[in-house]
Design goal:
The structure is a single chain. With 342 residues, the chain is of the alpha+beta class. It folds into two domains: 221 residues, no CATH class; 81 residues, TATA-Binding Protein (2-Layer Sandwich).
């Protein structure tokens, strides 16, 4: 038996019982409200992460633990006979949902498995041979199981052992390829936990702490985030936002003072830059001047051209990815020309 909640942001949200099979049927149903909301979520995830997180809270959620009263609070915990592990940010670690899901189908312990709402993770439900009624014991067992499971499938950094609270929940998603095994093997906690008070217990805790630190390091190295490598063009982003019902904010265009002389000065800059085999890639208005991006082969640099009462001024800028030597050369070239003709 699992427990389902509908309004995670509502204090005291009551939980309703549901069999694992019933949850599975709901997950694979293409006409469910969850499926409709998830399509919106996955469309907006790339373009507005704040809105994605807000909308995500509208999804139903699962809890394995039993509570009395039936509200998801640690002080109401009675016992649990199942647990869920999260495998997140798969693409950041060179994994993909379909391949990993197919690999894990052969694990006889997994009772239910489905993709996370964001589409880049998996949730796996396991049954316990014996109920756990102590929240501290559960937390230690959960961390230990995650540690062993991650090593077994080379998923260090992917399996999140920090979701070890008995009141922890996970959001339901729509996954037409979800996996369900009604005859899954139950997990024996005794196979993972040493006798309490034994030296092995201290060693286990030390091993868990070390692995959690290693997981944090791996996530930091891979830059785990919800950002995308190449931003989408604004017109595509706005079209997606309108499609999924997100209100667009019209940016306020800045008005910069642009002396008429700047157009003639830019013609000179173009000529000077092209004479040395480089080219002006783009220009952007700034106050009393232009921001100029210059390219030469695979390198680029950015300089600012200003025009005022004191005449022409050229200033190099330092930007990530730009070439300092090219920048200095362009500044020297343009300063030399304007100083000699001023």
């Amino acid at each position: 038996m699992l427990w389902v909640g509908k309004h995670i942001t509502t204090p005291g949200d009551p939980l309703q019982p549901a069999s694992v099979e019933k949850v599975f049927r709901a997950i694979i149903n293409p006409d469910s409200e969850v499926a409709t909301l998830q399509r919106r979520l996955q469309a907006i995830r790339m373009v507005d992460i704040k809105q994605y997180r807000k909308l995500k809270t509208g999804l139903p959620y699962l809890v394995c633990a039993h509570f009395h009263p039936k509200t998801r609070k640690k002080e109401n915990f009675i016992f649990t006979d199942r647990f869920i592990i999260d495998m997140d940010h798969l693409s950041e670690f060179g994994q993909d949902v379909i391949t990993l899901k197919n690999k894990l189908r052969s694990d006889p312990r997994i009772e239910l498995m489905f993709a996370s709402p964001g589409g880049d993770g998996l949730k796996a439900v396991f049954g316990l041979k014996e109920k756990i009624s102590d929240s501290g014991f559960y937390a230690l067992f959960y961390k230990t199981f995650c540690l062993r499971f991650a090593k077994e499938y080379d998923l260090e950094g992917v399996v999140d052992s920090k979701t070890n609270d008995v009141s922890r929940c996970c959001f339901v998603s729509h996954d037409p390829d979800a996996y369900y095994n009604p005859n899954a093997d139950r997990v024996d906690t005794g196979s993972y936990m040493p006798e309490e008070g034994a030296l092995e217990l201290d060693l286990l805790k030390a091993e868990i702490k070390q692995q959690e630190q290693e997981n944090d390091r791996l996530r930091k190295e891979t830059g785990v985030s919800l950002s995308v490598a190449d931003p989408l063009p604004d017109d595509i982003i706005n079209a997606i936002k309108l499609k999924v019902g997100v209100r667009l904010r019209k940016p306020v265009e800045k008005q910069y003072e642009q002396p008429e002389e700047l157009n003639d000065l830019m013609n000179v800059v173009n000529d000077q830059v092209s004479e040395v085999g480089a080219q002006v890639l783009s220009t952007t208005p700034i106050s009393y001047g232009r921001k100029i991006k210059i390219g030469a082969g695979k390198y680029w640099a950015e300089v600012n051209l200003f025009y005022g009462h004191r005449g022409v001024s050229i200033v190099g800028t330092s930007k990530t990815g730009s070439n300092k030597e090219l920048c200095n050369s362009m500044v020297a070239l343009l300063k030399s020309h304007f100083n000699n003709t001023g």
